[in-house]
Write a structure and sequence with these properties.
This protein is an alpha/beta fold. It has 19 helices and 12 strands. The strands form 3 sheets. Strands 5, 6, 7, 8, 9, 10, 11 and 12 form an 8-stranded mixed β-sheet that branches. A two-stranded antiparallel ribbon has the order 1-4.
Length: 509
Amino acid sequence: MKSPAFWLSAKWTGALLLQFLGMTLHEVPAVVIHQVEEALDEDEKEMLLFLCRDVAVDMTSPNIRDLLDILNERGKLSALGLAELLYRVRRFDLLKRLLRMDKAAVEAYLLRHPPLVSDYRVLLTEIGEDLDKSDISSLIFLMKDYTGRGRTAKNKSFLELVVDLEKLNLVAPDQLDLLEKCLKNIHRIDLKTKIQKYKQSAHGVGTNYINAFQAALPNVSLKDPSNNLGLQNGRNKEQRVVVEQLGIQRKPVKTSIQESGAFLPPHIPEERYRMQSRPLGICLIIDCIGNDTAVLRDTFTSMGFEVQCFLYLKVERIKQVLRRVACMPQQRAFDSFVCVLVSRGGSQSVFGVDQTHPGFPLDHIRKMFMGDLCPALLGKPKLFFVQNYVMSESQLEDSSLLEVDGPAVNNVESEARQLGPCTLHREADFLWSLCKADISLLEQKPVSPSVYLQYLSQKLRQERTRPLLDLHVELNNKLYDWNSTVSTKERYFVLLQHTLRKKLILSYK
């Protein structure tokens, strides 16, 4: 016989469970919807609207507030549903701040319950995130043969292009050959492969997708697609589950939890970047402030990198160092490359220690290491961690520190052309982590090291055997906690972009 203490404990556990279910299954408060709308930027709003096109087939061009409000009124937007949407646009900070949930909790929920958004829409949002403006322009041009001349505006986003193609029945969950062909034509083989993997994972599995433009019934209710995160490239855990929720028996569904971007069916082993060379690669540290070199050198040396440090460089010298490292023949023997750059700068450039010299554009730094210009690193992960202390526009005007296009890297380009075309897209295998902070932090006495770089070093030293993208998400969470306790001038803001094609762990294996 069970003791009274057992029954009391069981009763209390059940009460807590019911309380949790009540909180997550009921309507989302209007104030939360309002905060979500205010926090999302325009690209994130566009992505969320696109992801929900099949969920709200009878809604015409809603804004985010209207979309979430109508879903809420129709009982389709519990706190867990909203959590999934925030997860898919990778706003993990809002998950934590507004819903008191983390990434792992959402993933655990999605493994057991049918998701709100289809794998098809997740795939397309991820492809859109990996395309640059020139790629999209090329796609729009190629699509003219199918959409007709003049039907597609040149300044459309990729998701807007997809909507146009859906209206013409040229793109659908089971109709991706045209998009696959065009991606091949613009040499984005990495994204073509992603579509192929999606097709393999979806083979033989039914879908609840409904083309919003084919839903003719005026009283169509919101659909509950039994499909998948959108952020940017990684792993899928897929399974069929039979969910019985609130007394309703659901059909078997396929669930995907995507953490970084590629669709991998269960029978395809997850690929990892090779990390066997000794050293793992060159870690180039350019510190024009001088506060973070020591800890960065110790961190990357302990991880097995050959560390090269440069302090207090002018812009011209920064370019020379980057050009020299990009052309080093030793890179062919290494499995990766890391660059850490700490400097004053503008919104899109760095100034080094110059006071009157124009800045060096950040995109030129990346360009030096792209596949066609740096073939020795082709197919290998190239990681950039940039701490930029940004001057305000008024400061730039007063000091004549204007951002202008830097000189072309002609020497690197001419050498690359002699080596022939790349087999991978030139921008593949990059991770670009840019942290911006106010330049007033450098006016404090004494000047403190970068919180961003301190957290990064701590994560890499203590948890290097974990995937780098996972560590970066946790780094963002730590910076969010930091920002919530300090003034606006003391905050750090991180932008993560990447085109990694495989799982990346910065440790020998």
